[in-house]
Amino acid sequence: xxxxxxxxxxxxxxxxKVLHLRNLPWECTEEELIELGRPFGRIVNxxxxxxxxxxxxxxxFAELNQAISMxxxxxxxxxxxxxxxxxxxxxxSNRHEIVNNKSPGDVPGNVLLVTIEGVEAGDVxxxxxxxxxxxxxxVHKIATFEKAAGFQxxxxxxxxxxxxxxxxxxDGRSIPRYLxxxxxxxxxxxxxxxxxxxxxxxxxxxxxxxYTNPYLPVNPTAIxxxxxxxxxxxxxxxxxxxxxxxxxIENMQYAVxxxxxxxxxxxxxxxxxxxxFEKNGGTHAxxxxxxx
Length: 292
Prior knowledge:
- It is built from 5 helices and 15 strands.
- The chain is an alpha+beta fold.
- The radius of gyration is 22 Å and the shape is globular.
């Protein structure tokens, strides 16, 4: 029994690869469900935001023993499964696979689900994705992640019409060769619509970006290659050479966005990543170039 008195598991059901999760937070995402189940195995399918209160979901593991492992672990744990601080109640489903009768990918929306085939995480940066898709309109947010289908990205536009234009133009095509690493000659984009309408981006990083909020906190690991300032033997400040610049933005006369900074700094070389953050009452940015 959980501390609230509500049973977290039903033991009388026959084990299934599909688990039924209840008491989830509002608009729980597929990525959150995958993260919850990741320690126990590979989740191959999900069905989110079901039930009258849209606080239930189903997850399907690749193997039955993976689902059993998850149920057994939380059944014996003093700490319940949690998503965003809410206790999640888990039980076996009476279904043995998740069948999506109407795929969200068929319903036009303002968020696209993009699968980038033939690449691994890190081959295609979030800035390259932004550059490709912003040609069709203002990109609000991007979140990248890895799943069974491969390296994927959720890309949020202002409206469904803009997203549809991008999908129609890019689905089945490759990212331009000059934007890819040398070891890749092409990578196909497979694009469908996502059921999401507003992505929840918690911080700027190399995996997620919110272009509508330049003051969003930056993840300390957001910019790869960032080097802290050190002191030399003569006790004077010594800055090691790095391909990452730390810029302090003062006397702003207008909103400084990632796009504005990219325009300024790209004139000096290939800008790979930009992150804006607040520190000690000032606005700063990290700008990563492809080389020193």
